[in-house]
Amino acid sequence: MPKQIVTVGHDAELFLYDEDNNAYPSVGLVGGSKACPREVNGGAVQEDNVMAELNIEPCTTAKQFVNRTNDVMESLRTIIKSHSLHYKIMDFQKFEPEFLKSEQAKQFGCDPDYNIYSLQQNVVNTKLLHKDNIRTAGGHIHVGLTEPNFHPMARSSLVKGCDWYIGLPLTILEGTSQRKAFYGQAGSFRQKEYGIEYRTPSNIWLSNDKIKVWVFDQIKAMTFDVLHFLPNNEQPTHERRIAAVGEHNFQEIINCGLVDDAWDLCENYGMRVPTLETS
């Protein structure tokens, strides 16, 4: 098999706030849409429901991943500063009802996502989101391979690998995230022609550069594992470990924010856990 080039990107979402720290919709302020993102240095920004979404160009190094993410975040900061707004890294937000009356604020997701363990479509209770004036913000990670169809189980293994290498350790930072009642359950993904979109994480990994580097490094370690074992029809290490824990138990740890259990697994298997501290 020819050497695979691994690329990492993301589409992370951020909430906007006014000078009094009241949540404010991005509608008509950020520009860009799914169909036509607003190009900026390092990638693009767009309006997604009432959030601002960041997109970066695919990266092959941690330095690219961090720099492009920071460039797009800085571009967003400049755009919204002219409206006296700022962003915060929060994954769950309640809005004043008047801010959610636009048609854009009522649109949830362009395509369904799926659970890699059940292979069923994830169902989101959008009625409750409307009723309670709630919105959530994710930090979806895109993993690409030069030849993503090199094995029939390649995408499945990539998603499960993301759960093990990223979803599990981030559970320690996210705790009992209210977002997970709607989005971000274990194994959430969309299939892409280049690979996968991993949709479990919140935007918490945008908090500092060390976590951004950690995300990229974890993806590289995971894909190395997949590319080492799958071509020989062997199960990658992370799949064997998830099986040892039990798929149901493993999903419950991520979905319910069982921080102690997540810590135990990370310590037992020597998993690096990021920190929110910047020093």
Would you write up a description of this structure?
Helices cover 34% and strands 20% of the residues. The chain has 279 residues and is α+β, with helices and mostly antiparallel strands. A hairpin with a 2-residue loop joins strand 3 (38-40) and strand 4. Helix 3 packs across helix 6.
Shape: globular
**Major sheet size, sense and barrel closure:** 10 strands, antiparallel
Number of helices: 7
> Which structural class should the secondary elements be placed in?
alpha+beta
Could you spell the SSE succession in H and E letters? EEEEEHEEEHEEHEEHHHH
Q: What separation lies between the terminal Cα atoms?
A: 42 Å
For the residues shown, what is the average pLDDT?
95
In short:
The protein is α+β, with helices and mostly antiparallel strands. Helices cover 34% and strands 20% of the residues. The strands form 2 sheets. Strands 1, 2, 3, 4, 5, 6, 8, 10, 11 and 12 form a 10-stranded antiparallel β-sheet that branches. A two-stranded antiparallel ribbon has the order 7-9.
Task: Name a few traits of the molecule.
279 residues; alpha+beta; ten-stranded antiparallel β-sheet; two-stranded antiparallel ribbon; 20% strand; globular
Question: In terms of topology, how is this protein built?
Answer:
Elements: E1 6-17, E2 23-24, E3 38-40, E4 43-48, E5 51-56, H1 62-81, E6 86-88, E7 92-94, E8 114-115, H2 126-131, E9 134-136, E10 139-145, H3 154-174, E11 188-192, E12 195-198, H4 209-229, H5 237-245, H6 247-255, H7 259-268
Antiparallel strand pairs: 1-2, 1-5, 1-6, 1-10, 3-4, 4-5, 7-9, 8-11, 10-12, 11-12
Helix pairs in contact: 1-4, 3-4, 3-6, 3-7, 5-6
